[in-house]
Amino acid sequence: MKKKKIAIIITSVLVLLAVAAWIYFKVLLPKNDTHTQHEGMTGMENMKMDSKSGDMDMTTADDKVLYTCSMHPQIIRDKPGNCPICGMQLVKKEKESKEIHDVSLHTLLKPTNGYAISTIPATTLMKSEEPIEINALGYTAYNTSEVGAISARISGRIEKLYVRFRYQVIKKGQKIMDIYSPELLTAQQNLLFLIKNDPSNNSLISAAKEKLLLLGFPSDQLQQVINSQKTLFTVSVYSRYSGHIHDASNMGMNSTTTETPEMNEAISLTTQELNLKEGMYLQKGQTVFRVYNPNKVWALLNIYPSDQTFVKVGNKVRIVPEAKPDKNFQNSIYFIEPFFRPGSKTLTARVNVDNSVLQLPIGSQVQATIFSNPVNAEWLPKEAILSLGLEKVVFVRSGNGYKAQKIETGVSYKNLIQITGGITVTDSVAANAQFLMDSESFIKIRDKD
Asked: How far apart, in whole angstroms, are the C-alpha atoms of residue 175 and residue 163?
């Protein structure tokens, strides 16, 4: 009996559910769809109206010019002026961003130390013939071809010395010293003996006179001996040159090249006494003093290895002395020393200087411009080349960007640098290499394949 009641209850519930479902799907749902469609149409019409109104608003906004700050983009104004934060002048705000086309993901993923995307201008190698001007530094030095030596022709003792200090200026014919020489004294006695005992023997008398002259006996003193019939105890030695007198024992003066002493050495040399003293004995042939002509000097110019191929004998040179910068002059290179001086890795070019008017101190610094022969080569502007110390690079265009490329350079002239290798005339390089890298130490380069 209980089971029958339960079955009746379940059947009744199912019937009620079926009736409710029929009423919902057949009666209520169609009405809701009709209302929804009506509301949808009304909404579409409203959206169209709003769209028209929005388009009008957007058109008005697009026509309006806005100004912003380059450093602070949150600052936006409708008229020009200055930024209230940094004070910079406001610039026009772009309405649309420029699209970048043809840039692949592979390009964007390349390392920044070897490849940079940029639209900066490019340039190529320029082939032209350019005159080369090379700047060089140097100093003045004594001309060794103008050096005279005062030597002892006979052995003897210095009785009187008329030169008192180093670098003393002497004139040609000036008396340098008086020497007592037994050899000269004997030769005088022989001459007087012949004149007194055999005056008609002219050949022997002439030979005796010639011997005295060859031994350095002055002709005026020889005539004095003949006239007075008395021998001279001392014989004077005269200079045959004009210039600055130097000790012959100075090691720098015995060398084949002119050595310019350092400042401290020059001071010590000028304060030192002469090595030669009165009472000292001289040997026959010994060089006593050297005389350097200060009116005929050299300008010794230092030529660096990078410029040595362009400097030739005969090149014109304009020299500006630092002691007298308003007295510049021109001359030619007449000799290039074929060796490196001790402690230097530069070649030395010699230029003759007439110092009779300028009177430049020996050892004074000079600046020179050497005008070399024109060079026909391929050139790039200096701005297109980036120096990494021992290496130089340019940025060669590759697709939409630039990649670093090592190059070889030659001579530099004004704003141009000679390119000797690394790129060809078909390569386009960035006109300004500084814009592509923030730090030179992160640039990765490789030789061109």
From this structure: 9
